[in-house]
Amino acid sequence: MRESWRWFGPNDPVTLEEIRQTGATDIVSALHDIPIGEAWPLDAIQSYKFLIEAGNNPGASLHWTVVESIPVHEDIKLAAPGHQKYIDAWIETVKNLGAAGIETICYNFMPVIDWTRTDLKYQLPNGAYALRFDQDKFAAFDVFVLERANARNDYTPEELERAERAFHSMSSKEKSELTRTIIAGLPGKMTDAYTLDDFRHALARYDGVDHAGLRRNLFSFLKQVLPHAEAAGIKLAIHPDDPPWDMFGLPRIICTPDDLDLLFGDLPSPANGMTLCVGTYGSRPDNDLPQMALDYASRIHFAHLRGVSRDRDEQRSFYEANHLDSDIDMIRVVRHLLDNERALDRQIFIRPDHGHQMMGDMKKANNPGYSAIGRMKGLAEIRGVIKALSAMGSEQ
Ligand code: DNO
Fold first, then answer.
1. Beta bridge partners of 132
2. pLDDT tens for each residue of 183-224
3. 283-339 residue pLDDT tens
4. 20 to 30 A Cα–Cα from 371, which one of 22, 153, 159, 195?
């Protein structure tokens, strides 16, 4: 396993010096300042790599090997007139990243919104903060704040009643916080920040686009990109839609094993791979994560290791739990990843995903989910699992 750590660049409150202390060896990052749709020039990639690697010393070295993410312009997802120039730019970025020694590229194909939560400071019984997705608050936003046309049709009468209750229990400050959190709030998101009106407009562009249509656009994008990724020695690792179900009436097409089977069945290129985001896939009770770690052996190039705990009565609501104590059997996930590394004689990049905001980080500015101590706790726990399982050998 290659232990990696996501770094958002020079403005990230967690510094490279601190990351070296975690024991991680690989950096996951992106050229966040380049506008969506533009190619990343080779010299900019090389300077960024230099910046990351400049402070290395023997025994504490970081290497930029994983990109998360190259954003995919909305026009590509919509196959809108003129979108070819954005595909060309994406391909150029892939070639340049290959020339600079990047090994894996994580990306996603979520329309309009990237990963979505409703609470960035959900307090756990021990006082630390976690991220949470609350289905009732989400529905309250959709129906009563955004007032999306026909939104009501997507919810049952009981769900609407709960949403209405959630809406009325929020102060106006809480409502605007919720709005910001949903449409503009999260780090590393691959879409532009929106005002409510922009957001309505962005959603409207998808009127009439269904799952099959969006899938067609993903596949024709990949058909062009994959040969270049292969030639550049790069593995693509698609990130699932988070949370993994349709939202705002938008089709979401990377949510389940069925979606992955279509993707890999249609495009068998060895460069066509996935990010096993354990927390994202695990937000659905019907996704069996240890089984997925086993089934997609040769396709998993990157794993985001975190757990979620779903609400008992509303399975679409969850909070991000401890890495090892959640609804997901993380030990078996790691065991299968290790088995599949041995079987295929290669290494998989892993990173601790979203940590709790805790201890000295509680009063610090931080990117939600990406504070230092909580992620280091996750990494340390996972590292212990890896060491223990590796010492015991493979599963029979
Ligand atoms: C959340 C992340 C996402 C992810 C992108 C991948 O923490 O997992 O931002 O990086 O959606 O393209």
1. 119, 319
2. 876 666 666 667 889 899 999 999 999 999 999 999 999 999
3. 999 999 999 999 998 999 999 999 999 999 999 999 999 999 999 999 999 999 999
4. 195
239 part of the active site: yes
The number of the ligand 1 atom at minimal distance from the alpha carbon of 280 is: 8
Q: Which of 166, 179, 46 is nearest to 117 (CA)?
A: 179
Give yes or no: 353 in active site.
yes
115, 356, 367: which to mutate for ligand 1, most atoms within 8 A of CB? 115
Q: Which candidate, 239, 282, 233, places its Cα nearest to that of 263?
A: 239
- Give the pLDDT score at 396: 47
How many angstroms does the Cα of residue 350 sit away from the middle of ligand 1?
14
Residue 114 in contact with ligand 1 by CB distance below 6 A: yes
* Ligand 1 contacts CB of residue 115 (under 6 A): yes
Q: Name the DSSP letter for residue 340.
A: H
User: What is the residue type of 25?
Assistant: T
Catalytic residue among 12, 75, 353, 361: 353
- Is 106 touching ligand 1 by the criterion CB < 6 Å? yes
pLDDT for the residue numbered 188: 63
What is the pairing mode between strands 318-321 and 307-310?
Answer: antiparallel
| Binding site membership of 369 for ligand 1 (Cβ less than 6 Å) | yes
Q: Which domains are present in the chain?
A: 2-117+209-312+321-395 (3.20.20.150)
Does residue 239 line the site of ligand 1, with CB under 6 A? yes
pTM more than 0.90: yes
Mean pLDDT by 10 residues, the chain (396 residues): 97 96 97 96 98 93 97 97 98 98 98 93 97 97 95 96 97 94 72 81 95 98 98 98 96 98 98 98 97 95 97 95 96 96 94 96 94 97 96 69
Residue 3's φ and ψ, nearest 5 degrees, are: -80, 115
Q: Which has the closest alpha carbon to 27: 44, 47, 2?
A: 2
CA of 261 to the centre of ligand 1 (A): 21
Q: E strands along the chain, which residues? A: 2-6, 26-29, 63-68, 104-107, 119-123, 129-133, 235-238, 272-277, 300-305, 307-310, 318-321, 349-352
Report which secondary-structure segment, H or E, holds 181.
Answer: helix 172-183
